[in-house]
Amino acid sequence: MSDQQVFDVPASSAARALVNAAQYDAMYKKSVEDNAGFWGEQGRRVDWIKPYTQVKDVDYTGAVRIRWYHDGTLNVAANCIDRHLAKRAKQTAIIWEGDDPSESKHITYGELAEHVGRMSNVLKAKGVKKGDRVTIYMPMIPEAAYAMLACARIGAVHSVVFGGFSPDSLAGRIVDCDSRVVITADEGLRGGKKVPLKANVDAALKQCPDVSACIVVKRTGGNVEMKSGRDVWYHEEAAKVSPDCPAEAMNAEDPLFILYTSGSTGKPKGVLHTSGGYLVYASFTHQYVFDYHEGDIYWCTADVGWVTGHSYIVYGPLANGATTLMFEGVPNYPDSSRFWQVCDKHKVNIFYTAPTAIRALMREGEAPVQKCKLDSLRLLGSVGEPINPEAWLWYHRVIGKNRCPIVDTWWQTETGGILISPLPGATKTKPGSATKPLPGVMPQIVDANGNVLEGACEGNLCIADSWPGQMRTVYGDHKRFAETYFSAYPGKYFTGDGCRRDADGYYWITGRVDDVINVSGHRMGTAEVESALVAHPQVAEAAVVGYPHDIKGQGIYAYVTLKTGVTATEELRKELVLWVRKEIGPIAAPDLIQWAPGLPKTRSGKIMRRILRKIAENEYGALGDTSTLADPNVVTDLVDNRMNR
Ligand code: 6R9
């Protein structure tokens, strides 16, 4: 069995690591016995304008209150840039690798300071003030990081929207947080294809009358429309302003950013992170989990539109004065050795990616890897979904040459940073397990009734106490925050994940227990996809579930009931897939659509997803109790007409 396969800490990692096994145990013990003391010390890893005297003020009951370092003031951008300048003005902060392999550049900390200063002044010139929200809809170019840091510098709250989202999704997010300014680019470039970012913004802004300025970075030089009075070119505005901009003193609990993420119900939630605790946590976890040392070249392949890009491309690495690589492209363009060529080209030491990418590259065989040396790699990381033991073993052998430890890092948009992960010098690894909690993190596994389970067990994963990187609220809806995360198991943070703990105390995440699908490491709420389908004029009803998918982890399986009189055709099937792509974005496009004359419902009208999930998983022999269905015949029809996969 794979969980009996244990990989020792390689001697080379143990020798250089910040923390060995005994030190981890001691650190963990202290962090539990004196939690505020532990985080009080860690808080000093960042520079404070006014040092905090209070560390922790948390109440998980009632209305729910979470505050860390709440009488301190700091500036996040100053921590990521200014405080490094004395020593690192000439050190590379960002290595940018373009979609086209011939394009790359290095941006030093000194240059970063100027770029961010200018972007800050451009925002100010557009009237952006402390506390205002700014939406960033950008490709993976350094200006995306400048924009985030510029917001942080002047105290504005950024909301980065992934460039793969549709105009409607973008508009919803702009309106929800009431952004008046949007930063975008003319077009993005991914895998040789252009992404019409500005055109998408134009379409979105038709629904956002309050947006007064759109700042456009020139990336491809493609033709775009500029609406006079609203749209401006970034390079023209930047030339008019000074590169110096003072950093605003922010309270530790002032908001830093909002990031929208899918939940089990309703529209995406604006997850709100604040300044002090988030930065301390991003910096702490980046240093310890990746065993970051001075001079390391570090590459996280995520997009800045996801939380991984926020914490582990921008804030964590830059807070630590690291060199962080930002990649515009995709793993298989121009060919499937692209990741490995980039590792060789920039002598990457630490490489952090997602299981879906590993599985896709694994499918191409070892030849594309063998073209590259990969001798600079020291540590590999994984994030986004459970990594299958097969993929883990391939990553370890073929990419890591049996030499590099793998850190399988479990965390969420809501957690701000990694909570469960090996520490490379301390933790033996088991393929498929995220292993043990980081210091200061107190996981608990509970059964359906909320009883805390001890020892080896399986149940729902909760966290018993706060950590500084935890989200503080759902933007504009604190009640939803308390209900979503703290009501299922009162007094605990409920993650939405199922989890097993083995006899060695290792955690094995089994996937979501709610109606959230994890497609290629991206969270999709079933309700969102269903709403998009039902918005189509020919659709009467839709139910969406996940099913196992070789590359994506989970694929999207949609059951669709058409309106009376509408004929089910292949064309309509294709049209619905395109429709969802347009409504939400390409990541939400259903992989399979089954026509369903009826859906299995309880007598009270609730769709029984359990049954739909079983059919989609091809486990229709074990549908369980169907006696509560209003019309059991519906199920027979669905089984008979299930989609081939
Ligand atoms: C960082 C990120 C969070 C959900 C989470 C879980 C799944 C993430 C994982 C993992 C198993 C890992 N997940 N990392 N499952 N092992 N190492 O992905 O945030 O997009 O909010 O997704 O992803 O189900 O609850 P987010």
Automatic annotation (TrEMBL):
Residue span(s) of domain AMP-binding enzyme C-terminal: 528-606
Positions of modified residues (N6-acetyllysine): K606
Catalytic activity, reaction form: acetate + ATP + CoA = acetyl-CoA + AMP + diphosphate
UniProt KW keywords: Acetylation, ATP-binding, Ligase, Magnesium, Metal-binding, Nucleotide-binding
Name of a matching Pfam family: AMP-binding_C
Location of the Acetyl-coenzyme A synthetase N-terminal domain: 24-80
Post-translational modifications: Acetylated. Deacetylation by the SIR2-homolog deacetylase activates the enzyme.
Task performed by this protein: Catalyzes the conversion of acetate into acetyl-CoA (AcCoA), an essential intermediate at the junction of anabolic and catabolic pathways. AcsA undergoes a two-step reaction. In the first half reaction, AcsA combines acetate with ATP to form acetyl-adenylate (AcAMP) intermediate. In the second half reaction, it can then transfer the acetyl group from AcAMP to the sulfhydryl group of CoA, forming the product AcCoA.
Gene Ontology MF term list: acetate-CoA ligase activity
Family according to the record: Belongs to the ATP-dependent AMP-binding enzyme family.
Protein name (Swiss-Prot/TrEMBL): Acetyl-coenzyme A synthetase
Domain AMP-dependent synthetase/ligase, chain residue ranges per copy: 82-466
Positions of Mg(2+) binding: V534, H536, V539
Cofactor(s) listed: Mg(2+)
Sequence positions that bind ATP: G384, E385, P386, D408, T409, W410, W411, Q412, T413, D497, R512, R523
EC number: 6.2.1.1
UniProt-annotated binding residues for CoA: R190, G191, G192, K193, T308, N332, S520, R581
InterPro entries: Ac_CoA_lig (IPR011904), ACAS_N (IPR032387), AMP-bd_C (IPR025110), AMP-bd_C_sf (IPR045851), AMP-binding_CS (IPR020845), AMP-dep_synth/lig_dom (IPR000873), ANL_N_sf (IPR042099)
